[in-house]
């Protein structure tokens, strides 16, 4: 299981100001902190970048690349920013992401083919809605897999995100049990060892405070690991969550266990 830091988000005021000023200091600080905390990859969540998207995404990617030697995940809905990030990112960059929404298929799949990079696929319907049941998510996975193949992208480039639902949704509990079922089923459904990723923080959207967020994320994280998740996007700067992630990895590892 690969731990991806979700801490580099331009929606955070300090990082947003740094990007506006093209000030690398705060970006370097958070990237270094993530690596020191145990991140194995960093998600660069640039937000919409409505003004000067190419310049700002290139700045973000170059700054992170110059600071840490970790794979990066480019998280933006702006195709121009995505293209600029891929051009600046070099190897080990992943697109986050694509779905069955027609505009995303049209704009994002050509970039994945052009740069021969991994691409995260969200299990959403063409209307952008999350399927309510496991069957709907699996149907979306099959349809997305066909789109990936039709675009000439090797299947092993696909990383599937089954969409962790906020617990506060009316059916949040049931949806997240469906997420676990999808993670277990996808390799047999698609006929190859497809990788999966989950955004852990989605679970506690709207939670009343950090203690509540931590408690529920620490409870759901081992369930994801047990289901066979390949990558988890989480807050690597929370020591409690990282301890649970590390213990879960060691329990499910195929190597001989050691208390050390």
Describe the structure in your own words.
The protein has an eight-stranded parallel beta barrel, surrounded by five helices. The chain starts with a strand and ends in an 8-residue tail after the last helix. Helix 7 links the parallel strand 6 (158-161) and strand 7 (195-199). It is built from nine helices and eight strands. The mean pLDDT is 94. Helices cover 50% and strands 16% of the residues. It has one domain (2-252): TIM Barrel (Alpha-Beta Barrel), CATH 3.20.20. The chain has helices spanning 13-21, 24-37, 53-67, 79-89, 102-115, 134-150, 172-190, 210-227, 239-252; strands at 2-9, 41-45, 72-75, 93-98, 118-122, 158-161, 195-199, 231-234. It is α/β, with parallel strands linked by helices.
Q: Which terms summarize this structure?
A:
260 residues; TIM Barrel; eight-stranded parallel beta barrel; 8 strands; globular
Poorly predicted runs: none
- CATH superfamily (homologous) name: Dihydropteroate synthase-like
The shape is: globular
Q: What's the CATH first level?
A: Alpha Beta
The fraction of residues in strands falls at 15-25%
Task: Give the integer mean of the pLDDT values.
Answer: 94
The DSSP helix count reads 9
Short structural summary:
The chain has nine helices and eight strands.
Fold blueprint:
Elements: E1 2-9, H1 13-21, H2 24-37, E2 41-45, H3 53-67, E3 72-75, H4 79-89, E4 93-98, H5 102-115, E5 118-122, H6 134-150, E6 158-161, H7 172-190, E7 195-199, H8 210-227, E8 231-234, H9 239-252
Parallel strand pairs: 1-2, 1-8, 2-3, 3-4, 4-5, 5-6, 6-7, 7-8
């Amino acid at each position: 299981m690969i731990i991806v830091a979700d801490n580099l988000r331009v929606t955070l005021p300090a990082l947003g100001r740094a990007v506006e000023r093209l000030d690398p200091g705060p970006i370097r600080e958070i990237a270094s902190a993530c690596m020191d905390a145990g991140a194995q990859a960093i998600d660069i969540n640039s937000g919409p970048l409505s003004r000067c998207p190419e310049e700002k995404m290139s700045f973000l990617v170059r700054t992170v690349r110059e600071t840490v030697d970790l794979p990066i995940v480019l998280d933006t809905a702006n195709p121009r920013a995505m293209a600029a990030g891929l051009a600046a990112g070099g190897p080990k960059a992943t697109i986050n992401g694509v779905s069955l929404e027609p505009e995303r298929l049209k704009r994002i799949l050509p970039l994945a083919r052009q740069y021969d990079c991994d691409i995260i696929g969200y299990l959403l319907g063409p209307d952008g809605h999350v399927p309510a049941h496991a069957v709907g998510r699996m149907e979306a996975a099959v349809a997305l897999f066909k789109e990936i193949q039709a675009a000439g992208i090797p299947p092993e480039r696909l990383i599937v995100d089954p969409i962790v639902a906020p617990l506060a949704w009316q059916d949040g509990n049931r949806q997240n049990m469906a997420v676990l079922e999808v993670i277990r089923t996808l390799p047999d459904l698609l006929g190859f060892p497809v990788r999966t990723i989950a955004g852990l923080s989605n679970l506690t959207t709207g939670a009343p405070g950090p203690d509540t967020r931590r408690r529920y994320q620490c409870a759901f994280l081992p369930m994801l690991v047990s289901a066979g998740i390949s990558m988890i996007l989480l807050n690597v700067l929370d020591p409690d969550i990282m301890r649970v992630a590390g213990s879960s990895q060691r329990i499910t590892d195929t190597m001989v266990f050691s208390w050390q």
